[in-house]
Amino acid sequence: MTKIHSTAIVDDGAQIGEGSHVWHWVHVCGGARIGRGCSLGQNVFVGNRATLGNNVRVQNNVSIYDNVHLEDDVFCGPSMVFTNVINPRAHVSRKDEYRDTHVRRGASLGANSTVVCGVEIGSYALIGAGAVVTRDVAPYALMTGVPARRAGWVCQCGVILPKGTGRQACPECGSQYDISPDTCKPVPTVQATTA
Question: What is the pTM of this model?
Answer without folding.
Answer: 0.95
